[in-house]
Design brief:
Length: 224
């Protein structure tokens, strides 16, 4: 199989209390000018066994349950960009390879020696739009399965809290501009939530309640 050069993505994450999600949706609707898409994704995280060499490998199988016929994607997230340039930008830049696959992919990875690490169900919504870069914002509750693959019996990992993720595809030539576009967009969301590089927890912002109340009262009539 021919190895293609890896794509890259810029990403930031944050959390918001579920009670303020409706206000965030109103704000995003005004900023993006597009309709939201419902999100229901079964995510299976697989890790390589010791027989595949010393370098641990992790892949994620994503099943889109919103489709009439559930579709599968395999996603491999590589290492984050390092060095002085990476430190100076407020978003994480990492390699990422994604490809459509069949429902038999799970069996194939098991055959290759991968083992199930954990699985999640993400339920929420997303916005896809262009604003200096092709940006995707996802807002979702993260749920764990009580039984293997039992998506109907999933329970929230953090009740009352939802994860917000902003991502944009990039390349070695464009990541600076894309990172800048993502950072600029995140500033509009600042009163409701703080977005930072994954792994850097900043918690909920103290201004969220007041910002949410303001958005709910004017119905998101302001378009920026």
């Amino acid at each position: 199989m021919k190895q293609h050069s890896a794509d890259m993505e810029c990403v930031v994450q944050g959390i918001i209390e579920t009670q303020h999600v409706e206000a965030l949706e109103i704000l995003l609707q005004g900023l993006c000018g597009v309709q939201r898409e419902r999100l229901r994704i079964h995510e299976i995280c697989l890790k390589s066994g010791p027989n595949l060499g010393t370098v641990a490998s992790e892949v994620r199988l994503l099943c889109d349950l919103e489709q009439a016929e559930p579709s599968w994607t395999v996603r491999h997230v590589g290492g984050a960009m390092r060095g002085a340039g990476a430190e100076q930008i407020s978003v994480l830049v990492r390699t990422m390879v994604e490809s459509k696959t069949s429902k038999n992919a799970l069996r194939m990875f098991y055959t290759l020696g991968y083992k199930l690490d954990h699985e999640l169900l993400r339920v929420g919504f997303s916005f896809h739009f262009y604003r200096g870069a092709q940006i995707t914002v996802t807002v979702s509750s993260i749920n764990k399965m009580l039984k293997l693959h039992a998506t109907d019996e999933a329970v929230p990992v953090t009740p009352g809290i939802q994860m917000v993720e902003v991502t944009a595809p990039a390349s070695a030539e464009t990541y600076t501009e894309v990172a800048s576009a993502v950072s600029s967009f995140c500033e509009y969301l600042a009163p409701l939530l703080h977005l930072s590089k994954p792994g850097i927890s900043t918690g909920v912002v103290p201004t969220a309640a007041a910002a949410a109340a303001s958005l709910m009262s004017d119905g998101g009539g302001t378009t920026l």
